[in-house]
């Protein structure tokens, strides 16, 4: 006898979980398509070289990688974005640009399972390929805000910055290329641990020079007023063209959001955020749910150099990935949506073998009217059939025994109210459809 056991880090989803997942995914699909994005799907297996050198050394330790029967070095898809870049590059001659796509598919990572972290999970990405316009970045922020509002989130913010601004800050402070990522990783913590703790980390852990640290912290001083903060950066970084370009792009994004009528409580300028440092090239942003300290639920930004890796020429791109697994868990834990326990509206009971034909006709008639109907398959005791319907939370049971058949009607039992009535099948349909 085999022991029923699934692999660690993988999950089974029964009906309730599947329905919640389908609801959340359905919201994202509807919002994406509302903004002109179209679906894309790519294979589960890719050549390993597609991901090698792009995902990073630590990520490559998590590849589900093997040699297939044809001797090819292949792996399960590590993330959908790189797979999308390969697909776009391979079909670039046939894709009208700009190309707006969304992709909601499973990916696989051989990491240590823990709460909220799995070896197989769903990624939810959307991207615009082939446009360098910052309007694409701004529109994505608007779209992400709408998606989270539609899902029922009330307290969240899009934290917005620019990779070019980060580059300019490091250059202004006198940092070098080796300092860049360590400094960014530390100043990313400024809103959480404060300037003194960040300074200590930069000096003691990151081994960054005191003069560089002081200048970094001087220029990144916080302000709640976006316009004032941008002007302060303009004053201090006016001689650094890359920083000025980044600030110009940020102003375009904030002008777009204001013109689009987006409530400013849902976005803010945060010059400290550091995400995707290995590949983001311009605007960067993340969506952070503040209520309940959920944290970041999406990482996004412009990555103008990634697709060019496959083509030898620059193809601008921007977009982001929503942490759909985290979003689903939060929605489930907080009971933010109420879904029916089952899509089945009616159970047609089977009285005995002599009435099977009538029960089948009744079930098919109900289905023809768009009513989800389960025909009980056994001639079990009626109480057992009613108990089954109750356990499944099916609201109605139809009984068609010899007496009902003779009268040309059916007995309709409403399990929610505990009431039963003799009624025509046509009237039963009207009653069920109104419920």
TrEMBL record:
<keyword id="KW-0547">Nucleotide-binding</keyword>
<dbReference type="InterPro" id="IPR041715">
    <property type="entry name" value="HisRS-like_core"/>
</dbReference>
<dbReference type="GO" id="GO:0006427">
    <property type="term" value="P:histidyl-tRNA aminoacylation"/>
</dbReference>
<keyword id="KW-0030">Aminoacyl-tRNA synthetase</keyword>
<feature type="binding site">
    <location>
        <position position="123"/>
    </location>
    <ligand>
        <name>L-histidine</name>
    </ligand>
</feature>
<feature type="binding site">
    <location>
        <position position="109"/>
    </location>
    <ligand>
        <name>L-histidine</name>
    </ligand>
</feature>
<feature type="binding site">
    <location>
        <position position="275"/>
    </location>
    <ligand>
        <name>L-histidine</name>
    </ligand>
</feature>
<keyword id="KW-0436">Ligase</keyword>
<feature type="domain" description="Aminoacyl-transfer RNA synthetases class-II family profile">
    <location>
        <begin position="1"/>
        <end position="340"/>
    </location>
</feature>
<feature type="binding site">
    <location>
        <position position="127"/>
    </location>
    <ligand>
        <name>L-histidine</name>
    </ligand>
</feature>
<dbReference type="InterPro" id="IPR004516">
    <property type="entry name" value="HisRS/HisZ"/>
</dbReference>
<keyword id="KW-0648">Protein biosynthesis</keyword>
<dbReference type="InterPro" id="IPR004154">
    <property type="entry name" value="Anticodon-bd"/>
</dbReference>
<feature type="binding site">
    <location>
        <begin position="279"/>
        <end position="280"/>
    </location>
    <ligand>
        <name>L-histidine</name>
    </ligand>
</feature>
<protein>
    <recommendedName>
        <fullName>Histidine--tRNA ligase</fullName>
        <ecNumber>6.1.1.21</ecNumber>
    </recommendedName>
</protein>
<comment type="similarity">
    <text>Belongs to the class-II aminoacyl-tRNA synthetase family.</text>
</comment>
<comment type="subunit">
    <text>Homodimer.</text>
</comment>
<dbReference type="InterPro" id="IPR045864">
    <property type="entry name" value="aa-tRNA-synth_II/BPL/LPL"/>
</dbReference>
<dbReference type="InterPro" id="IPR006195">
    <property type="entry name" value="aa-tRNA-synth_II"/>
</dbReference>
<dbReference type="Pfam" id="PF03129">
    <property type="entry name" value="HGTP_anticodon"/>
</dbReference>
<dbReference type="GO" id="GO:0005524">
    <property type="term" value="F:ATP binding"/>
</dbReference>
<dbReference type="InterPro" id="IPR033656">
    <property type="entry name" value="HisRS_anticodon"/>
</dbReference>
<dbReference type="GO" id="GO:0004821">
    <property type="term" value="F:histidine-tRNA ligase activity"/>
</dbReference>
<dbReference type="InterPro" id="IPR036621">
    <property type="entry name" value="Anticodon-bd_dom_sf"/>
</dbReference>
<keyword id="KW-0963">Cytoplasm</keyword>
<dbReference type="Pfam" id="PF13393">
    <property type="entry name" value="tRNA-synt_His"/>
</dbReference>
<keyword id="KW-0067">ATP-binding</keyword>
<dbReference type="GO" id="GO:0005737">
    <property type="term" value="C:cytoplasm"/>
</dbReference>
<dbReference type="InterPro" id="IPR015807">
    <property type="entry name" value="His-tRNA-ligase"/>
</dbReference>
């Amino acid at each position: 006898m085999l022991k029923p056991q699934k692999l660690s880090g993988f999950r089974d989803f029964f009906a309730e979980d599947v329905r919640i997942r389908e609801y959340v995914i359905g919201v994202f699909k509807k919002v994406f398509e509302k903004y002109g994005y179209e679906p894309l799907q790519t294979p589960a297996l890719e050549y390993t070289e597609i991901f090698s050198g792009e995902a990073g050394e630590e990520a490559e330790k998590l590849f589900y990688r093997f040699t297939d029967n044809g001797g090819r070095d292949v792996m399960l898809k590590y993330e959908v974005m790189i797979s999308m870049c390969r697909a776009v590059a391979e079909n670039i001659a046939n894709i009208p640009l700009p190309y707006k796509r969304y992709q909601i598919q499973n990916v696989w990572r051989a990491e240590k399972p823990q709460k909220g972290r799995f070896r197989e999970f769903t990624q939810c990405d959307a991207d615009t390929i082939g446009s360098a316009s910052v309007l694409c970045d701004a529109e994505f922020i608007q779209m992400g805000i709408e998606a989270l509002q539609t899902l029922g989130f009330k307290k969240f913010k899009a934290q917005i910055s620019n990779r070019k601004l980060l580059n300019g800050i490091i250059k202004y402070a006198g940092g070098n290329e080796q300092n860049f990522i360590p400094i960014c990783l530390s100043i990313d913590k400024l809103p959480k641990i404060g300037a003194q703790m960040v300074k200590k980390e930069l000096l003691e852990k990151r081994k960054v020079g005191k003069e560089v640290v002081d200048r970094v912290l001087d220029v990144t001083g916080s302000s709640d007023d976006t316009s004032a903060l941008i002007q302060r950066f303009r004053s201090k970084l006016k001689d650094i063209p890359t920083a000025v370009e980044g600030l110009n792009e940020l102003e375009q994004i904030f002008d777009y959001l204001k013109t689009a009528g987006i409530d400013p409580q849902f976005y803010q300028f945060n010059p400290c955020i550091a995400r995707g440092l290995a590949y983001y090239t311009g605007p960067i942003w993340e969506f952070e749910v503040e209520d309940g300290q959920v944290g970041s639920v999406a990482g996004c930004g412009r990555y103008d150099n990634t697709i060019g890796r496959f083509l030898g020429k620059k193809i601008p791109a921007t977009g982001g990935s929503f942490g759909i697994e985290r979003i689903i868990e939060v929605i489930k834990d907080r009971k933010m949506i109420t879904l029916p326990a089952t899509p089945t509206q009616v159970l047609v009971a089977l009285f005995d073998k002599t009435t099977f034909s009538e029960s089948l006709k009744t079930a098919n008639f109900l289905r023809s009217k768009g009513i989800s109907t389960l025909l009980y398959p056994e001639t079990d005791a009626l109480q057992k059939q009613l108990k089954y319907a109750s356990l499944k939370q099916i609201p109605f049971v139809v009984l068609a025994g010899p007496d009902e058949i003779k009268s040309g009607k059916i007995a309709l039992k409403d399990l929610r109210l505990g009431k039963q009535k003799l009624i025509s099948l046509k009237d039963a349909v009207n009653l069920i459809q109104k419920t």
